[in-house]
Amino acid sequence: MTSGDLAGMYQQVILEHSREKHGFGLHSEADASSHQLNPTCGDELTMQLHLDGDVVRSISWEGAGCSISMASASLLHDLVPGLTIAELHARIGLFRELMHSKGAGVDDDEPLGDAVVLEGVSKYMARVKCAMLAWVALEADLAQLAK
Amino acid sequence: MSHPAGTTELTGSLTDDEVLVLRRDFPALNQQVHGNDLVYLDSGATSQKPLRVLDAERLFYEHDNSAVHRGAHTLAANATELFENARATVARFVGARDNEIVWTANATEGLNLIAYGFSNASLGRGGADATRFALQSGDEILTTEGEHHANLVPWQELAARTGATLRYIPVNDDGTLRMDEAERLITSRTKIVTFTHVSNVTGVINPVKTLVRLAHAVGAFVVLDACQSAPHRTLDLAALDVDFAVSSGHKMLAPTGIGVLYGRAELLDALPPFLTGGSMITTVTMESSGYLPAPQRFEAGTQKVSQAIALAAAVDYLSSVGMDRIERWESELGARLVDGFAAIPGVRVLGPGSGVHRAGLASVDVDGVHAHDVGQFLDDRGIAVRVGHHCAQPLHRRFGVTASTRASAYLYNTTSDVDAAIDAMASVRSFFGVSS
Ligand SMILES: Cc1ncc(COP(=O)(O)O)c(C=O)c1O
Predict the structure, then answer these.
(1) What's the pTM value of the predicted model, to 2 decimals?
(2) What DSSP character marks residue B292?
(3) CA-to-CA distance for A7 and B74, rounded, in angstroms?
(4) Domains of chain B: residue spans and CATH
(5) Shortest Cα distance, chain B CAs vs residue A66, angstroms
(6) B188 contact partners, CB below 8 Å, separation of at least 6
(7) Which of B376, B381, B402 lies nearest to residue A42, judging by beta carbons?
(8) Domain tally for chain A?
(9) CB of B389 shorter than 6 A to ligand 1
(10) Across-strand partners of B143?
C-alpha cells in the first residue's frame, strides 16, 4: 500500500538516525554556533562547530523537527570529522545539489557518505528544506568563521 | 449547470449518497494522488470550488466585464449591478444589511482594516464621530489564547501604536475558553474584545453570546473572526449582536482574493478608512478629501468584482444545500474523526474529546512522529491534511507541541473519507517504527 517513493524517502537508516540523533546535545563552548528556524513548520535547530585548526573535530546540535530534519543532522554529524573547512564547504554544496536534483541524484555522491540515503527526499519539493536545515545551520557557522 | 443534491428536503443532515452526488460539482475532488483517489480533508485551510462558482466567474468575464461604480456605458452598469447584487446576497447569508458588508481580500485584511481604523481614530482622524474608537495608554484590547495569528498580530501592532495593553483569555486543557478569566478580564478598561467563533485547531465553538454580553456591559466593541463558522453553519450576525466580523471567501467555496468585513452600519460610517484613494471619496482638493459612507469608504481602488460575484454564487450553492444540514453533517463527521483518532494508541486529540459538540475538524499529536511525517504518510495514500502550527503558535505552545496534524471536513466529504484518514492514522506509528 505504501508507494516506492515514500519508502525511498523513509529508509530504515533514516528512521534510525532520526531516533538516535548522533551528535545531539550542545557543548558549553564552540568555535561557531548558529540557530535556524523554519517558520513554516516550526522546525528548529542549533548547530555548533568544533575545530582543530582549520580541520573539523566535530559538530554538536540540538533541535526539534520532523524525522527528515533530525536524521539529516545526525548523518551530517557522522560525515564531517576530519574535513577541512574548504572540504566542508564543498560537501554542503554537493548536498544542496543532490537535494535539488528532483530524484535524479548527482554524478559523484561518494563524498557525501551515508548522507546519500537522503536522495529520496529530493522527489518531495516540500521536504527539501527539512533535509537542508542542519546543513544551512552549519553553513551559517562557517560564515561566522569567515568574519 | 449542475445542481447540488437534496434541494427539496432541507431538514436533517446530509447522507453519504447525497454527498456523492454533490461531489460531482467539484472537479478538483475527482483526481488521483499517488495512485489513490484524493481524500481532501484540508478545507479548514481552503475549500474546493464547485462548477457553479467557476462558471459565475467565467461568465462575468465573458459577458459583463467592466469597471464598477465608474462610467455610464451598459457593461459598466451591468457589472455594477452584479457586484452590488453579490453584496446583497452575501449580506442576507450572514444576517446583515447591504451597507454593512465591505469587500476585502480576505479575513486578514478585514482584521487589519478594523485595527487600522481604530489606529487612525487614535491619531485624531475621523473627527468627533470617531473618538469612540480612539485608544490610549490604560485602554485594553482583549483577545484569546486560541486565535489564528490573523486575529492576534494586528492587535499586537495596534497596542504598540496606541499604547493600549493587549490581554488574552487563556484556554483550558481542552481548548475551551476560561470563562472565569473572561469575566475577570473584561473591565471598564476593555475597549475591544476579539475572538474566533470556531477554532481552526480544536473545532471548539466559542460562546459568542456570553462574550458579547460581557463586552457590551462595559461598552467594549466585539470583533468576531467568523472564518471557520461562516462556511459551515448558519450565521446571523445581527442576532449574535457582534459589532464587527470577518470571513474569507476561499474557505467557503469561493475563489481566493475575496473576503468579507461586517460592521454595524452606524459604526462603519464612523470608522476612519484604512486604504485610501479612488472610489472611496466625495470631494477631493489638493489639500484634503471627503469620504463616502460605508461600504464604499473602505473600498479604495479597483475592486474584486469577479471574485465578489463568484462568492455570491458560492453562498447560493451553500444555501441551496442548506446551512443547517451542512452543519449537522459536519458535526457527525467531526465526531467520527475524534472518536476514530482518540481510539488509536499514541494519538492525542487536541481539544475536546469524544462526545463534546465540535466543528467538523480534529487536530492530533502523534507520539514519537512529527506532524510533517504524519502528513507525508497520509499524502502517500492520497489523503490531504494540514500539518504544522496552523497559524496558531500560542495555542500549540499551550498544548505543549510545536505542530499538529489537522483533518478538516466540508459538505463534500463522506464518512469513508473520514474512515480513510482514521485507518491511515492507525498505521503511522508502526510505519515510523515507534510502536510494534
Ligand atoms: C480562524 C481563522 N482566522 C483567520 C484566518 C485567516 O484567513 P485568511 O488567511 O484567508 O485571511 C483563518 C484561515 O486560515 C482562520 O482559520
Answers:
(1) 0.94
(2) P
(3) 61
(4) 16-50+322-431 (3.90.1150.10), 65-319 (3.40.640.10)
(5) 5
(6) B218, B219
(7) B402
(8) 1
(9) no
(10) B168
